[in-house]
Amino acid sequence: MQARISHPMFSSDIIEARAYQLEAADEALTGSTMLVLPTAAGKTVVAWMVIAERLRSTTGWILVIAPTVALVEQHLRGLVPILQGIVPISITGQNPVAKRPDLWGSSRVIVATPQVVRNDIERRSLDLADCSLLVVDEAHHATGEHAMAQVGEMYHSQSSNPLVFATTASPGSRKDLVREVCTRLGIERIHLRPSDDPMLADHLAGLELQEIRVVVPGEIRELAEPLVLWQRGIVDRQRRLGRYVMPGAISHAGLSNAMDRAQTAISRGESNAYQSVSQIATAMRLHHLINHLLSQGCAASREFLLRLSSGDRSTTKSTRGFLRDPRVSGLISSLEEMDEMHSKVGAVRRLVRERLRRDSNSRVIVFATFRDTVSALELAISDLKDARPVRFVGQSSREGSEGLTAKQQVERLDEFRDGSANVLVATSVGEEGLDIPSADLVIFYEPVTSEIRTIQRRGRTGRHREGEVVVLIAEETRDEGAWAAAERREEYMRRAVHRVRREIARGPVANLSNLSQFEIKSEENTISAIEFVTAERDLHRVEISETDDIEIEESESSDLSPGTFRAPGQTGLEKFFDE
User: For the domain 32-203+495-513, what is the CATH code?
Assistant: First the structure.
């Protein structure tokens, strides 16, 4: 039997004892902390320990915020069996505004979406003065105008005894964004552990990552060819005008730079720059459309064109002209008559079929960026033996695509957890935080350039057992650059977090004193958490040898002229000795 963590506020000893989580809880109770751990390393368990100790040591109440309704419900389900004598509640946009004032204050632990918290503070139906702990899940959202950042600022301005515990696996690759998260949430310290940390590595399930390259079908390349020639003609003209200057293949960065140069030319009074702006905007639309065709397929391209024809800019002259062009209108007609034919769909079918053939109890998650692609994949998978796919998308409804209500989202995740569905086909709404412990395989329909989204997607597997991640890359498309960019940005993220960590003001040193109420129980005995952590530290301490036993072979040095080590033409002292 494994050792378990006990605390006066825990209803039972169900939490497995892990030293690195106890260390993180100790630091979080010392001062406002952002915890950065790999996905599936147990950030939620640390939050439970911090919540329990704060409930015991203060008279205030606890607020937990998470960015989506599905995550709020997940946190609530986790807390209910953990806490002793307290019934947590959730408050989201599904609760009527008129009834929410009575809900606030009805429990000492409340889980809510940040939008609801912000709105009710602004309505003066919620006061955070007695809130003794704010737990922020997926804290990387706390930037700009996001409600999570605003709640962080409101909390520090109202609470008489503030403490923030923020968690994320992916705080961002830019130092300024990591610093903003810390500033907006009032973070005093960052607790960071990489996946190869000695204390952590033994507890992370294995994660196999592989790339599968596919060839884009000739039919799709034929559809894209007129658009490629059109875009190339525009860029060639802009090169001659000195507007498009970046070397190599046409890229979004090159087009953005060309647009900036054209705008600058307008400010200088160059009359032909107005036409350049229009043409570069067309090239940008073509760039997106070409990438959709080659990297995503027919369904995503249809969705892109539908959004373009029905969006806010659909009435502008440039958009109407773009859609009326025979090359685009012809493409729309062709796509309407075509089923999805991209090689990636066949690759997804093969991967799912093989996984279920090896183990019919396996669970698979397929991530795709666009809803039409999700629908096409769900249809393609549905006829496979033992496959029971379910679609998981966001709440908003768009033309031709119905969203899921928060209740439907929770129901579909429950179907996936209990096995009535075994393939979850999801858009980005399924990337963050959702605890789907039995996912054995995650398939990226396309690589994403965002390091945050890459880490979140990858973290949906390997949470409790060996997991596999497959990234589909269409050859000679933007997929190749996107995957390389995501890998670079993960490294940038680690550097950014380390730099901000060194800069922010640190409070008192965490010395395990906050763990005095925690005990570690096993069948053999019961010891204090402080003893347990100290023993684990000794076990994983890196031994440094007092002597270096490595033998270095001495090599005979050849006699070299002193002139070998001087710049040409420089005179040395030996010249004078010779004289």
Answer: 3.40.50.300
